[in-house]
Specification:
Order of helices and strands: HHHHHEEHHHH
Shape: elongated
Number of strands: 2
Distance between the termini: 109 Å
Length: 253
């Protein structure tokens, strides 16, 4: 074999080898770039999930805690007869503040429904459990198997939540938050607004007049809210576990 032919063969082999190395390098670079893009997408979803949880879980947790705390005080500690007896101003506060903590909870439920449909915890089973816990509270509110006191139909729950919302603009996206207590009290002078709390107000005044009665629905609601709080804050990081006890008094009626 002549040197010219050998040189040509070597040149071809070098060319082929270079092409193989180049293709391998390009393929590997493409794979690495694809993996990097996927990793960034995962990290982005994780960051979005964390932001979503921080934005919605804490207000929902706080609202659920405020409501269960009031219900616990009514059921377990005889709240109305012990602390709000004959003084008219105290009774009015008891009525309006109880209405507010119910409205605050329903308001955050409505915000979740509007903004994210449900609070995405990044886990299908966790999402399902959250929906189940919130759904249980809705059903206790509307159940006709319990005496009517403190009953709210599904549509009334949504309407009460809707009128509690404040519309904020965050860039191009609409955002919501709940009315504060002073704004809530002021709005009770609005007939349309107050209408959605009228049934609850009648129940609260009944509880004040007939203490230790009509507590069955309140007890069940308080228990269900504690279950929701335990799910949202299982390690007691935001709310001390000793302050989320379930009321033991079953109530009458």
């Amino acid at each position: 074999m002549s040197n010219e032919i050998l040189a040509a063969i070597i040149a071809v082999l070098v060319s082929v080898l270079s092409a193989v190395i180049s293709i391998y390098g390009q393929t590997r670079t493409t794979i690495l770039e694809h993996r990097l893009v996927r990793q960034r997408e995962v990290e982005s979803r994780e960051e979005q999930t964390k932001a979503l949880i921080a934005r919605y879980r804490n207000p929902l947790l706080r609202a659920a805690y405020n409501l269960q705390s009031r219900l616990y005080n009514i059921v377990q500690l005889d709240f109305y007869s012990k602390h709000y007896g004959e003084v008219a101003a105290d009774q009015e506060y008891a009525v309006k503040n109880t209405l507010y903590v119910v409205g605050e909870y329903l308001g955050w439920v409505e915000i979740l429904r509007r903004d994210v449909q449900f609070l995405d915890l990044g886990d299908i089973e966790a999402n399902r459990q959250l929906e189940t816990l919130m759904g249980a509270i809705t059903e206790i509110f509307l159940s006709d198997e319990i005496e009517p006191a403190f009953r709210l139909f599904r549509g009334e729950q949504r309407a009460a939540g809707e009128v509690m919302l404040l519309h904020r603009h965050s860039g191009e996206k609409a955002a919501y938050e709940c009315l504060g207590y002073s704004e809530f009290v002021a709005k009770l002078d609005d007939e349309h607004f107050a209408h959605w709390f009228a049934r609850l107000e009648e129940s609260i005044r009944l509880l004040i007049c007939e203490p230790r009665q009509h507590l069955q629905r309140l007890t069940q609601l308080q228990h269900a809210l504690v279950d929701l709080i335990d799910f949202l804050d299982p390690h007691g990081i935001r709310i001390v576990k000793d302050t989320r006890l379930k009321a033991s008094t079953p109530g009458k009626g």
